[in-house]
Write a structure and sequence with these properties.
Elements: E1 28-30, E2 35-41, E3 51-57, E4 67-68, E5 73-80, E6 83-86, E7 91-94, E8 99-102, E9 109-111, E10 118-125, H1 130-143, H2 149-158, E11 162-163
Antiparallel strand pairs: 1-2, 2-3, 3-10, 4-11, 5-8, 5-10, 6-7, 6-9
Length: 164
């Protein structure tokens, strides 16, 4: 394996690092479970390199059903609590420090079934516009709006999410 192609041609380094304070309010709140999402580094803010989100789940069961993506990888790093992680074959209990990488096309899911809050980092590469998807899910959860099976399918397909 070699390094990727050069992306910066300058002779000297440049400034441009962006610090996001850890105590900022969440960017998004989802439903009665209390899930909070922090947009740490969006695809837009990283020039498409990656999207990084802190996902803080409340104590009630929550998480997506098994699915896959055609255009992005997804990785999970457990920060606190216990999170069930599905690698396409088996469910395992992820604890702080555990990591799951899912390549494009890899079936995966996650759930908090522990009865206590849990948190993790979710990393997408390259940086897809996942915020629109998260915000639409939050709107559905926060308003109690109900979608038909066809509407769910259309929502998922618009956001590179293929349910299995």
């Amino acid at each position: 394996m070699s390094y990727p192609p050069i992306r910066y041609e300058g002779e000297k380094g440049t400034t441009g690092g962006v610090l996001r304070a850890g105590d900022l309010a969440p960017d998004l709140r989802m439903g009665e479970n209390g899930t909070q999402v922090h947009y740490l580094g969006t695809g837009d803010s990283t020039g498409g390199a990656f999207g990084l989100y802190r996902w803080e789940m409340g104590p009630n069961p929550s998480g997506p059903s098994p699915h896959f993506h055609r255009t992005i990888t997804e990785s999970f790093y457990v920060l606190s609590g216990e999170i069930k992680l599905f690698n396409g074959e088996t469910w395992a209990t992820g604890r702080p420090g555990d990591f799951l990488f899912v390549p494009e096309g890899g079936i995966h899911a996650f759930r908090n079934e522990s009865g206590v809050p849990a948190s993790m980092l979710i990393l997408f590469t390259p940086g897809a516009p996942r915020e629109a998807y998260f915000e639409e899910l939050a709107d559905i959860a926060n308003t109690g709006r109900e979608l038909t099976a066809e509407e769910w399918t259309e929502l998922y397909l618009r956001h590179d999410q293929y349910m299995v």
